[in-house]
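#data-curation
PF: Archiving a pair of folding outputs for the training set. Convention for this channel: one message per protein, sequence first, structure tokens after, nothing in between. First:
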Amino acid sequence: MTERDLPDADARPHRAAGHRLAPHTADCIVEAWAPDRAGCLTEALEGLVEVFVDVPESATTRYWPLADSAPGAEDELVSLFEEVIYALDVFGVVPVRFHLAETEDGGIAGDMEVVSGDEVQNVGPVPKGVSYHDLSMKLEEGEWRCHVLVDV
């Protein structure tokens, strides 16, 4: 698994957005952080994809709309993760980039760029679901942070 912008647990000055993956028994933990909620969600989704695939730069992408998210920060996070897993399971496409923004009513909307599952290299087990155990998405010390346990 890869790590990017791994935070120092004792130092929390404002950092650029990032995420990290951590093993958890038979599952995986995705942690992400960013100055804004949309950025944190984007980082978390990128981390989710890193759990199971490596996408070549030459892969051909197409845009795929994301449904309006459920109300509440944690519900938004779960909803977006489930949408990625659904796209994998039902349509055989793998998201490679995410474009999210906050809506006027306080929700999250956007799209993702996807590639055919045939164009990626599997590097780990495909996610099966998201656990509500230890799930968090909150504004903490001036930045958005999330913690998600992914069932693989």
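PF: Second:
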Amino acid sequence: MKYVDSRLFAAVAFVVACAASPVGATTLRRAGLENLVAQNRTIVVGKVLGVRSYWNKDRTLILSDVRVATREVVKGDAKDKELTVTVMGGTVDEKTLLIVAGADLVPGRSYVLFVNEENLPGAPAVRTIRDHVQGVFEVVGSGSDVRAVSQATRHPLMKDSLGRTDAAGGPQGLPLETLVRSIRQIASRQASQPTQVPR
């Protein structure tokens, strides 16, 4: 059985998940689709190929590099056929760091990912899921019923400026094609009005 220093890592996870930081929505304030599109430079539909976990430069935090094969670039550079996303948390040797409401990316599964370049502790200017569970939609179903469901449906969210607490797409999610079409429309509208950033 692997030993995990639960007191240390629970404390770190709590601080990381609850403190305001450059990573963005770590307080888990509800982010609507408009906000997610505005605040992230790259949005892709892709499949996770593999995950590599390691200590950051200062050995104060475990990070994981997630390799993603992009099936469709919804926003961003269409040449990105594969990208690496760095998230906080993971397992190195006998130490495991779990981030409360952190993005949960499993090899072999497909997702819609909202990605931006941010500074993580000991890892500056990396592509990451700045909005944690709100920036990950799991692609589920098959055939004519393929849906995208936000991982935030499993976590409580603080009210946004309109008083809403539901994850984007709600508990049933959205048909994948509908979500992709909505993202493209929002991105196009926002590009024509670059000074308007939703809160």
